Amino acid sequence: MQDSVMPLEFTTSHVKDSIDLFRHYKRLADRAMEQAPDEALFATLDEESNSIAIIVKHLAGNMRSRWTDFLTSDGEKPDRNRDSEFEAPPATRAELAAIWESSWKVVFEALSPLTDADLGRTITIRGEAHSVMQAINRQLAHYAYHVGQIVYLAKHFAGPGWKALTVPRGKSAEFNANVTSGKASQR
């Protein structure tokens, strides 16, 4: 069942809610990868698909590029080699965890000082102007997309031992009652 580490907090701040959502998606992927056997982190479903390790490596490259000097430099850094993110994944769970954690650190360090007053500022990604709000939303959607892939693969490889990350099958009424009573959170 959904953990209640971070209950949904009412806010009208786009920045605060975005940070909370980034943390939510990170936690989903963390909990999914914890359930995947070590070898599953590097396995693919077929020769055209990516492993969890490759997806993490790609996200890490994207995070470093997009969020380093977020307000002052283009989000596609000149030293980023996106194509290489889909080759030669980290070799161990520990190496994978290290790049995952260090990349999320860059994200949260870039977002933490922002306020909603910054949302209308202009940044660029590949030379294309984005408002800060557009850039945040773009990355939220991108990370949610890949976290979904990580969860799908982890669930596939974990098999029958999989523990639901959100609402378990057949438990919607129970979950809804727990949210209503304050015992659980939707996030």
Task: Describe the overall structure.
The protein is mainly alpha-helical. The protein is 50% helix and 4% strand. It is built from 5 helices and 2 strands; from the N terminus they run αααββαα. It has helices at residues 14-35, 52-67, 93-111, 132-158, 172-181, and strands at residues 122-125, 128-131. It has a two-stranded antiparallel sheet. Strand 1 and strand 2 (128-131) form a beta hairpin. Residues 1-5 have low confidence and may be disordered.
Shape field: flat
Helicity range: 40-55%
Total number of helical segments?
5
Instruction: Label the structural class.
Output: mainly alpha
How is the biggest beta sheet arranged? 2 strands, antiparallel
Gap between N and C termini: 11 Å
Short description:
By secondary structure, this protein is mostly helical. 50% of the residues lie in helices and 4% in strands.
Top keywords for this entry?
mainly alpha; 187 residues; single chain; 4% strand; Four Helix Bundle (Hemerythrin (Met), subunit A); flat
Write the layout of secondary structure elements.
Blueprint: H1 14-35, H2 52-67, H3 93-111, E1 122-125, E2 128-131, H4 132-158, H5 172-181
Antiparallel strand pairs: 1-2
